[in-house]
Amino acid sequence: MKNEERYKHLNKYLKEKFGERHHHTSICYNNMASVLHELGDPEKAFNFYNKVLTINIESLGENHPEAITAYHNIGTIYC
Asked: Which candidate among 1, 15, 35, 72 keeps its CA 20 to 30 Å from the CA of 26?
């Protein structure tokens, strides 16, 4: 099983267990975005990083370090 398939499987499990907007789900999204970015798919990576940002702001607050990291990760796509 490829990494992308593993993350999709894990993401499905986390969404069922915790829900779409849970911090554990956002960690999986972040990891998936990182894999996609490394594989050269910045558009898909951006979509996942954006989900991470939205979840982190909603659940942790805009000034939380995890939200700041999500902003940073989005920025790395364009470097």
From this structure: 1
SS (HEC) of 11-78? HHHHHHHHCCCCHHHHHHHHHHHHHHHHCCCHHHHHHHHHHHHHHHHHHHCCCCHHHHHHHHHHHHHC
Do 41 and 73 meet the contact criterion of CB atoms below 8 Å apart?
Answer: no
Torsions phi, psi of 40, nearest 5?
85, 30
- Distances in whole angstroms, Cα of residue 54 to Cα of each of 21, 33, 68, 69, 72: 9, 14, 11, 12, 14
Question: Rounded to two decimals, what is the model's pTM?
Answer: 0.82
